[in-house]
Amino acid sequence: MGLSKFVFYNNDQNQINGNPFAPSDFYNYLQGKWRTGADIQYGGDGNAGTDGTKADYMFPGTSDSTHTAPWTEEGAGNLPADRRFLQSSGPFILKPGAVQNLTVGVVWARAPFGGASGSLSLLKEASKKAQSLFNSCFDLIDGPDAPDVEVHEQDQQIILSLGNTNTSLVENYTDSIERDFGTDIYKFQGYRIFQLKNGSVSLSQLSDLSKAREIFQVDLEDNFDVLINQEFSADVGTSIPVLKVRGENKGLAHTVQITEDEFATGSNKTLVNFKTYYYIVLAYAAGDSESEKYLGGRRVKKFSASPHKLGPKFGGSSVPSFYGDGPELTRLSGKGNGNNELELTQETKDAIMANKFEVNPKYENGFGPVKITVIDPLKVPEGDFELSIIPTSSTAELTTSGFKIRDSIHASSTTWVLVKLPNDTIFADTTLAYKNEQVILESTTGKSILDWGLAVTIEQVAAPSRDSEKYPTNGLINWSVEFSDPSNEWLTAVRDRDATQRIDGLGVYDWIRSGEQGRNSGYNDPSWHDFTVGNDGVTNSIDKGQSFERIWDGRIAPQSLVSNTLRASTSIVGNPRPESLIQSFTYYPTATGGHGLMLLSNVDIVLTPDESKWTECVMLEMGEDARLNVDEVPKFNMRKGQLKYGATTLDSGKSIFPGYAINVNTGERLNIIIGEDSYQRSENGRDMKWNPTDNAGNINSGYPSFGGRHFIYVMGSHQGASRVLQPKLPEDGPAYDKGASYYEILKELDDNTSTSGRNRELSKIFQNCDWVIPAYAAAGVELKENADGLPVPPNEVTIRLRVNMPYGLTAETDDVHTEGLPKYSFSTSDIANKVSVEKGKEALELVNIVPNPYYAFSSYESSSIDNRVKFTNLPPQCDISIYTLDGSLVRRIRKDDQSTEADWNLKNGASVPISSGMYIIHIDAGERGEKVLKWMGVMRELDLDSF
Known about the structure:
Layout: E1 5-10, H1 23-30, H2 73-76, E2 83-88, H3 115-118, H4 120-135, E3 148-154, E4 157-163, E5 174-179, E6 182-196, E7 212-219, E8 226-233, E9 238-246, E10 255-258, E11 277-287, E12 294-296, E13 301-305, E14 317-318, E15 328-333, H5 346-355, E16 371-374, E17 384-391, E18 396-400, E19 403-408, E20 414-420, E21 424-427, E22 437-440, H6 442-445, E23 454-457, E24 476-483, E25 491-493, E26 532-535, E27 538-541, E28 557-558, E29 603-607, E30 615-621, E31 644-645, E32 648-649, E33 654-657, E34 659-663, E35 668-670, E36 672-676, E37 698-699, E38 703-704, E39 712-715, E40 721-722, H7 740-746, H8 755-766, E41 769-773, E42 775-777, E43 784-785, E44 791-792, E45 797-803, E46 823-827, E47 834-835, H9 837-844, E48 848-850, E49 854-855, E50 869-872, E51 877-884, E52 889-896, E53 901-904, E54 917-924, E55 930-938
Parallel strand pairs: 30-36, 49-55
Antiparallel strand pairs: 1-2, 3-4, 4-10, 5-6, 6-7, 6-11, 8-9, 11-12, 11-13, 14-47, 15-46, 16-23, 17-20, 17-46, 18-19, 19-40, 20-21, 22-23, 24-45, 25-42, 26-27, 28-41, 29-34, 29-45, 30-33, 31-32, 34-35, 36-39, 37-38, 39-41, 43-44, 48-50, 50-53, 51-52, 51-54, 54-55
């Protein structure tokens, strides 16, 4: 029925507005009348000083829509008095025998300051909430439930795994709530975990930093990240925006590693073994409401955990792995590495160098194409596993710029399956379209046989340059340049320097075209603008964030980002403003390599003194002006000259590169093409050898030397690439063949070759070039030659370049059952927990009692009448006998569980508190041995006031 009248009267005997006495007085007040029967009127005190209009609600401020002028006691200047208020509903008719249920709510609120009027805004906000609750029959929207939490206590760390997540109450949660302006729909968004000061902290106190601190947040990768609600502030008397969560927006994870105590004082926050820590986990939802985008789950999980060493577990554990470690993976078929960093085993590298190709490359622990990680090292079983990526629909072709990548897979219709041979099987909860860490434990699978202590995370990714919004580094995962002798970094390369204007004199060094230089001009001048790639009819910078321009501080770049044109004059001599001279060849002056960065290889490039690993390759002419080059060979044609070393003479145009390159994704050795500038005789530019000098300056009136331009071009092997448009082929690059395939193309180019024919043939080569290094020697370095006259690197340099590669199919497998789909195998023999009596004997040495000595108090006690110490690192079964120094048995504690600790309440076997003194403690662990401890305790006086 709602509120029909709101009346104030005084606690006195006033005949108009005093206490009611007669029945008519009560009824008049219920009707909004004075004791006299006169209507209460708007203004003044409702009787005097009014505007003559009837008022149903006294002193409403501005909330009474039937009156425009505000009315308050303060504004009316009424004399203070002892007031009473009365609120009424009706009138209504109640017939004989009928029943009418009435719900009466009285809202109360008090602001921290501002007096009586300061509480009005807060009171109104409380009234709105009360009315909203009543309108919804007090049916609160609960938000998503917290997931189940399994705690894995480890040495100075706690691992949490979230289970039972794939349900309608957790990650599939959807609910709605009716509000004044429509229906708000909420869907699950993420998880939050807080460390609590102690076990008494409640959900309502999570915003108090003295009691709770957020240690973990994870959420879906979507359009929701920062969630802000409009909440009433008593300080300002209105609703203000309040940040509820700042989402990572990187996809869901279901495991958490905790290594620090957020409430620890001092610089060392490392968790302390056997100390109890308290946590709370909640799930939250996000909605499209303008005022309440964040909805925290009301049903949370609160728990405690105590870290400890793992050796004593199960009677003696040998734990070779830790949280986050992974197995040694072998690729059986397929391609791609997602967003995972790859590292081949030395065994595989040796096989590739011996055979040019390893059909089943093996990857170091935790550095494979798919992410399989250890969650609980105690539970990892010993066995052999196979993981397969399985599309549920036909394969696809990713298309870009007139170029196609065959045999890619649809993320939204592709899943995975993991089998512990012969047939224990786990199926993926989601498709590859979502980043989802799937935990494989009994608590998540419901089966003890599937309690593997592992997690699998597989997500289909975009190739480099295809989604820079999702991948801030544009698909670049990592890079490194490592010298085997760090004290002798003998190799360097030309460092990129951006030209800020077309006439900038430093344009010669602007050789990496990353960024958005020229965006306002439509990138129409390839001689100095940054490079672009088309995507769905839109032209965008290939690398607008300049991620690839930062590799080795701008000394290495993908071929597709390397400058490829001069201005009108191609003669460098006398040209006052040369353009970049570190170049790659591309048919069209405005083209950038056709595929952008989509086919970029994950490579190891190694320069080594080991001559058995050197690469036979083609050498190109790098001189800018053909008239100044040997035999007037134009730039990018094959050098005219023969290399003779020892008793060997190579074909004209062939050379030896003192190193090699490996595609760590496909397991192939790669071809390398090198260059030299035959115009630069003084800089070793005419000897057909890879022997750069340290000259980083100019020769002959402004001709940049770059150490003789002994540039390095690492060629790819692009399985799955196909020619779609001429002349942007690109054709599949061969695996290592001593440069023979490229040599056959280049040797046909001569003075009679047409310009278009030359461009076409060179395009065939450079469309397969992945990486470019304009290398030269570091200052003061001169490469020494071996007995055969070949330059030898002073020490080994390993260049690692890692990028995203989408999962897809390959045809180089003999396994007809996989049809080229990604499939991997691994063994857990080197990461599985192994239990033995011998390890149990070793672990027995860790048994201890803490604190020792005990001075009246310990951190394990919960109240003033609690006395407690703790035995730590205990085996599962043991007898703990406590003796006085004269050999009298005080207490015997029998332990038979998997915990590694036990409490002693400092009482004897008759539950009588012990006296202060020294005690001998004997731990009998059966076949695992015995341990004797000495302990001293000083007892405090009994606190009788606490009873």
